[in-house]
Amino acid sequence: MSTAMKPTWVHATILGAFCAGFGVLLALTDDVTKEPIKERALEDKMTSLGQVIPKSIHDNNPVTDAIAIPNPNAGGHGGTAETVVYRAMKGGQITGLAYEVNASGGYGGPIKLMLGVAPDGKLLGVRVISHKETPGLGDKIDAVKTDWITRFTGLSLGNPPVEKWKVKKDGGQFDQFSGATITPRAVVGGIRTGLEFFAANAPRMMEKK
Amino acid sequence: MSAKYGQIVKDGLWENNGVLCMLLGMCPTMAMTGTATNGFGMGIATAVVMAASNLMVAMFRNYVTHEVRIPVYILIVAANVTFVDLGMNAWMHELYKVLGLFIPLIVSNCLPLARLEAFAAKEPVLPSFLDGLFMGLGFTFALTAIGAVREMIGQGTLFADAALLLGPWAKVLELRIMPADWGILVLILPPGGFLVAGLMVVAKRMIDLASGKEIKMAGAHSV
C-alpha cells in the first residue's frame, strides 16, 4: 500500500490506530502481570533478608514490620533521604535489623549492600545486592563467587576498633583481592558507615510501633 | 517453496548473519559478550522478540502506509519487548533475574528493525516469522561464539553460570579451562569485545573464501 500521495490524515489515522491498539494491549499486559510481579518482588526481598537474618531468630515477617529512619547519607529519590529498616522479632522482642547501605567509591559506581545487625550491634551478616564491579576482579565480593563477604559476620564497630575498619593496604585488617583494592575498600567503608548509622539510630530502630 | 525456506535458514544462521556479515546490533554484541552464557541469553531474548515482531509486521504489512512505517515498526518492537519483559518477570522469575538486564536493551538493537524493513514488510507471514527466528538464532550463535572466546581467554572458563540461566542440568556445561586466577583481563573489558568481534568477522570471511563462496558484502544498510 505504498501508492504515493495519500492525504496526511490517512497516515495519522493509521499511526494513531496502531498506538491505541498496542496501548490497550500493553495496559492489559500490565494489569495481568502487576500482582504476580509484586509477589515476586516481595519474595526476592524475603530471600535477600533471609541471607542476613537467620530464619531461626524471628517469627514475624520483617518486610511488613519495617520502619523508615531518616538518613542524610541514603541519598534517596527526590530528596526522601531515608533508610527502610526491616525488623526481625521473636515474641515481640526485636532480634535483628536489616537495611540497605549504598557503599560509595566502587570502581563501577555505588555498591548496594544489605546489612543484618543484632540489637547489640554485631553483624548478623552482609550481602552484596547489586554492583557493577569488574568481572573476575571486583566481583569476588559477591557471595556466589567467593566467601569473602562472610568474614564480616560477628564483627561490630568496636571489634575490630574503628580505625581498623579498612583494607590492609590502608592500614586496616581486611584483605583486599590480588589486583583489586578499590572494590573491597568501598565495601569495607560501606559496612562501617552502615554500622555507624546503626549506632546513631539504634533507639529509634528498636522503637515499638 | 522449501528451497526458499532453506535459504532463509542459511541466510539467518550464516550467510547473511546479522553480526558477522551485516555488522548490525553491535551495541548488545559489545555489551553482553563477557561470557558465553550472557551472549546466549541476550541472543535468545532477541530471537523471541524478532520472531514476534516480524510476524506482526507481516500481518499488518498491507495496512501500514510507507510514510509512517518506521514509527509503527518501532512501536511493534517496543511493545513486544515490554510483553516479554513483563511476562517473564511475572511467570519466569528465576530466568528473569538473569535475563532481565538484557531485555530492555533489545529496543536499542537495530537488527530487528532492519529485518522488519528489509524482509517482513514485503513478505508473507510464515517466511517473515522464520526470517525473524533464524536471524535471531544467528545472532545468538554469533554472540555465544564471541562470548566463549572472550570468556576462555579473559577468565579461563566456559559457560560460567550457565546453571543460573538454563537450570541445574547446565552445571555440566560450566568448564574451567585455566586455573582460577589466570586470565587476560582486557578480553573481558570493553576493548576485548571489539577485538574479538573483529576477528570473528575475519574468520567468517576466511571460511567463506576457503569454501569458494562469493563473499556477501553488508546485505542491509544500517537503519
Please provide a written account of the structure.
The complex is a heterodimer of chains A (209) and B (223). Chain A is an alpha+beta fold. Chain A has one domain (51-206). Chain A is built from two helices and five strands; from the N terminus they run αβββββα. Chain A has a five-stranded antiparallel sheet, with helices on both faces. In chain A, a hairpin with a 2-residue loop joins β2 and β3. The mean pLDDT of chain A is 87. Chain B has 223 residues and is an all-alpha fold. Chain B has one domain. In chain B, 64% of the residues lie in helices and 2% in strands. Chain B has helices spanning 2-15, 26-31, 36-60, 69-91, 93-99, 110-120, 125-155, 162-166, 190-210; strands at residues 157-158, 175-176. In chain B, α3 runs parallel beside α6 (110-120). The longest helix of chain B is centred in the middle third of the chain and has 31 residues, at 125-155. Chain B is globular. The two termini of chain B are 29 Å apart. Mean pLDDT of chain B is 87; it is low at 219-223. Classes of the chains: A alpha+beta (209), B mainly alpha (223). At the A-B interface, α1 of A face α4 of B.
How do the SSEs of chain B run, as a string of H and E?
HHHHHHHEHEH
* Chain oligomer state: heterodimer
Q: What order do the SSEs of chain A take from the amino end to the carboxyl end, as H and E?
A: HEEEEEH
The first-to-last residue Cα distance of chain A is 67 Å
Q: What is the 3D form of chain B?
A: globular
Overview in brief:
Chain A: Part of a membrane-bound complex that couples electron transfer with translocation of ions across the membrane. With 209 residues, chain A is α+β, with helices and mostly antiparallel strands.
Summarize the SSE layout with pairings.
The complex is a heterodimer of chains A (209) and B (223).
Chain A: H1 8-52, E1 66-70, E2 82-90, E3 93-103, E4 111-117, E5 123-130, H2 182-206
Antiparallel strand pairs in A: 1-2, 2-3, 3-4, 4-5
Chain B: H1 2-15, H2 26-31, H3 36-60, H4 69-91, H5 93-99, H6 110-120, H7 125-155, E1 157-158, H8 162-166, E2 175-176, H9 190-210
Transmembrane segments (chain B): 12-33, 39-60, 72-92, 98-116, 128-149, 182-203
Membrane topology (chain B): Multi-pass membrane protein
InterPro entries (chain B): NqrDE/RnfAE, RnfE
